[in-house]
Structure formats: C-alpha cells, structure tokens
Design a protein that fits this description.
The structure holds two protein chains of two kinds. By secondary structure, chain A is mainly α. Chain A has helices at about 20-40, 50-65, 65-90, 95-115, 115-135, 155-165, 170-185, 190-215, 220-260. The chains are: A mainly alpha, B mainly alpha.
Chain lengths: ~260, ~40
Amino acid sequence: MDRRPWQPPPPPPWREAAPPQPFERIREKLESGFSRFRAGTRGLLLPLFTWPLFFDAIWEVATGDTRGFLAALLGMGLTVGAVAVLRSGRRGGTRLAAVMVGGATGLAAAMGAGTGPVIALLLATGGWLGTRLLYDGAVQEMAPPAPPTPPGPIDEARVRLARIAAHPQLAGVSGAMAGVLDDLAAKPERLGDARRFLAVHLDGLDRIRDRLEAGAEPPPGLPKLLEDLTGAADELREKLRAEETAALDIQVKVLADRLRQEGYA
Amino acid sequence: MHRRPVPQRPLLDTLPVAARRALGLGMLTLTLWLASFLALMR
C-alpha cells in the first residue's frame, strides 16, 4: 500500500521499530487505566435511580404506612441486589439483574405510587428493557467453575501411601506399593482384583507406622514382614502384567487365525 | 437460486453501543426513577 504524505516512513528493516513517543505512552496508560476503572465500577450507580425511594421510606415510616414502606424497601433492595447479581459476572447475570430491576420498578409503581396495574406493568417492562440496553455485553459473564472431580480410590490410596512413606523404615515397601498404584492408574479396570490387596496392605502399614511414630521399638520380625510385603506387591505387579501378556497372546492368536481364514496369510 | 442466509439479529443489537447505553439510561430514568419519584410524591 502506498504511503500517504502525512504518514511516517516505515522503519528500515535492519533497525528496531521506533520507540513510542512519550505522549503516546501517557495516553495509552491513561486510557487503559480509565477502562479498568470503568469495568471495575460497572453498575455501581444503578441504585442512584431509586433515590426518591429513600426519602419515601422515611416519609412512610413517619406516616405509618407499612405498605408504602415495604414498597420502598423492596424497590431499593431489589435494585441493590440486581447490582450484586450483575457484578458477580455469572452466566445469565445480566438477564436476571434486568428482571430484578423490572420487578423493583413495578413494585415501586404499583405498591408505592399506587398506579394501576397496567401502568405498573408498562413501567416494569421499561425498567427491564432499560437495564438490558444499559448492561448487555458490558459485563464479562463466566460460567461457574466446574467442581473438582472427586478423588478416586487410587488417589486415596496414594495419600495414605505418602503418609506411610514419610517414615524412613517403610520407604522400601512404600516404593513397591507406589509401583502397584502406578500400574493400577494406567489400568483402572484391574482395580477390582487389587482392591483387597490394597486395603490389607495399607491398613497394616498404617498401623505399623502409627506404632513406630508413637516410639515403639521395631521387633526383630519387622524387616522380614516388610520384605514379605514388598515381595507381595512385586508379585501382584507381576500377576497383573502376566494377565496383560496372556490377553495380548490371545489377541495375537485370534488375529493370526482370522488372517489365515480370510486368506491374507 | 442459492441465497445466503441473513443472520437474524435483534433490532436493538443493530444500534451502536453508545446509542444503546444512552437509550438504556433514558429508559431507566423514565421508569425506575419515575416510579420512585411517583411513590415519593404520592
């Protein structure tokens, strides 16, 4: 595209682009600051529309009119609530806030001012429409964050195992158990076979750890027991792997037969 | 003959943002404020 006479020449390709002028930078800063302020205070002035209701409430209290006082309170409360809903930024917040402002308008008109229901309905519709016009798209709405997935049995076992592994004497067997858990995490459908094993081992190790923490002297049979537990954990891993191997073996056989039947091999 | 579908937008969405905000401000003054004011004047 041609350069117009009033446009600055492009920077030569071997040099960095010219740094922005100080005036430009100040203007950018001011503008972004104003935008942030504008977004941060969005909707806070909406209750100012209901200032007559404040004096009306005082007047209704002085004259003892419960109905009018209730109307004034509801009108102000609903408007303030609408601002809270609007600023919470939840999905659909703007729509709900508009409905609340419409309700506040209708209540103030019907109960407070004593207009007929038709006029009150008209005013309520206008309040709803005005709020939609004023705030649609003005507030970033976000869906509430998804709840975290509940911890599965493997996660619980990991937490318990981490507690057990904190004890130096139980570190070896904890390592073997962690291997089992890793295998199970990769193959969750095997969890049914190992559930009993995990429960027995973790319960036993938990108790041993509690006693050791309480200052118990380790009995001479403890290292042997820990060795057995480690061996059992390794054995379980072996067994799980052997089952996988057997399953793969069957798959290979079936596929080979199939190929032969179809005449490809 | 093939016709491109025209995206349906609400009429008010076609207004520029500044006009929408001004209209909303006026509408709220005409309704929320007026209802409050009438309640005070009654």
